[in-house]
Design a protein that fits this description.
mainly alpha, globular, 339 residues, 12 helices
C-alpha cells in the first residue's frame, strides 16, 4: 500500500522505524524482567539479560511463528493469574483493610486522570496522554507486524476480526489492572515506609521478595518471565519477517528460493536478538529516569512518523510521492526538535 502510493522509499522508511521501535521494546522488556530476578537471587542484571535474551532467541529461531503464538498464549495466562493473585494479596495487607488503599489513593489523587490544561503539552496532562494513546494504539492494532502477523495466521478473516476486537476490548481492563497494582504499591508503602533506597522500577520486585510467601514469589517471577519472553519473541519474529520481505527479497536477492528465505529469517532472528539484548544492557546503565519514561520517548519518536505516513495514504486519495516526501521530512524535523 505504501509503495503504491508514495514509492519504495516510504516502505523502507516505515520498515526502519518499525525495526527501531522493536529494538527499543525488546531492550526495555528484557531489562524490566531482569529486575525482580536480580532482587530475588542477587544475580547480576547483565547476566540475567544476556541469558534470557539467548533463550528467547533460541526458541524463536527454532519454532518460528507457531512457537511464538503458542508460548504467548500460555505465558499470557500465567501473567494474568500472577497479577490478579498478587493484587488480591496486596489488598489484604493494609492494617485497616482494603478501604485504606482507596483513602490514601484519593488523598494523593492517584485516581485522577490528570490536568485538563490545554496550554502545556510538555507535561503528562490528560490530553497529552490521550493523544499518545491514540497514536500508539493506531500503530499497535493497525500497522504493527507483531499484531498483523497474527491476523494473517488466523484461519479466516472472521477469526482475525474476532482477535482484533478481543485485543481491543481487553486492552483497557488489563491496563487498568496493572495501573491499579501500581497505585496499590504506592499506598502500601505509604502505610509501611520501606527501610531501603530503591529505584522506582524495582518497587514491585521488592514487594514480591519481601512481602509474598516463597511459593507465590515463584509464581510472580514466572509471570514476569512470561510477559518478557512473549513480548521479546514476538518482536524477534516480526522483525525477522520484515527484514526478509522488505529488504532481503527486494534489495539483496529478488529471486530467493524458499531455503534462502528461511536462511535470511534465521540469520536476522539471531541478529535482532543480539541487538535487543545489547540495548537492554545499555538501558540497565541508565540512572536518571525510569524505564517507562524511556520507553515512552523511544516509542513516540520511532512510531510517530511511521503511523503518519500510513494515515496519509489512507485518508487522502490525492496524496502522492511529493506529499509523502514533504510529510516525512517535516515529521522527522518536528520529532528531532521535540526530542
Amino acid at each position: 500500500h505504501l509503495e503504491h502510493r508514495f514509492g519504495p522509499w516510504a516502505r523502507v522508511y516505515a520498515g526502519v522505524c518499525y525495526l527501531l521501535i522493536q529494538l527499543a521494546r525488546m531492550g526495555t522488556v528484557l531489562y524490566l524482567m531482569a529486575l525482580p530476578i536480580h532482587v530475588v537471587l542477587g544475580w547480576d542484571v547483565t547476566l540475567i539479560i544476556v541469558a534470557t535474551g539467548v533463550c528467547v532467541t533460541a526458541y524463536t529461531f527454532v519454532g518460528g511463528i507457531v512457537a511464538v503464538i503458542w508460548t504467548d498464549a500460555i505465558q499470557c495466562i500465567i501473567l494474568m493469574a500472577g497479577a490478579v493473585l498478587c493484587l488480591v494479596l496486596m489488598l489484604f495487607k493494609f492494617p485497616e483493610g482494603p478501604g485504606q488503599l482507596f483513602e490514601i489513593a484519593n488523598q494523593h489523587e492517584k485516581f485522577s486522570l490528570g490536568s485538563y490544561d490545554l496550554s502545556d503539552f510538555t507535561a503528562p496532562t490528560f490530553w497529552v496522554v490521550l493523544l499518545y494513546g491514540i497514536v500508539i494504539n493506531l500503530t499497535n492494532f493497525g500497522i504493527d507486524q507483531n499484531y498483523v502477523q497474527r491476523y494473517i495466521a488466523a484461519k479466516s478473516d472472521d477469526d482475525a476480526r474476532k482477535s482484533l476486537w478481543m485485543g481491543g476490548l481487553l486492552f483497557l481492563p488489563l491496563s487498568a489492572l496493572f495501573f491499579f497494582i501500581g497505585t496499590t504499591l504506592f499506598a502500601f508503602y505509604q502505610v509501611n515506609p520501606p527501610n531501603f533506597e530503591v529505584k522506582p522500577d524495582e518497587v514491585f520486585a521488592r514487594f514480591i521478595v519481601d512481602e509474598l510467601p516463597p511459593g507465590l514469589t515463584g509464581l510472580l517471577i514466572a509471570a514476569v518471565f512470561s510477559a518478557a519472553m512473549s513480548t521479546v519473541s514476538t518482536s524477534l519474529n516480526s522483525s525477522a519477517t520484515l527484514f526478509m520481505t522488505d529488504w532481503y527479497k527486494r534489495f539483496l536477492n529478488r529471486e530467493a528460493t524458499e531455503k534462502q528465505q528461511m536462511g535470511a529469517l534465521y540469520v536476522s532472528t539471531v541478529v535482532w536478538g543480539v541487538f535487543g539484548t545489547l540495548l537492554a544492557v545499555g538501558i540497565a546503565a541508565l540512572e536518571n529516569r525510569t524505564v517507562l519514561d524511556t520507553w515512552w520517548v523511544l516509542a513516540g519518536v520511532f512510531s510517530g512518523g511511521m503511523v503518519g505516513i500510513f494515515l496519509l495514504g489512507m485518508v487522502s486519495r490525492r496524496a502522492g510521492n511529493p506529499a509523502g516526501v514533504v510529510a516525512m521530512c517535516v515529521g522527522i524535523l518536528v520529532i528531532v526538535w521535540m526530542s
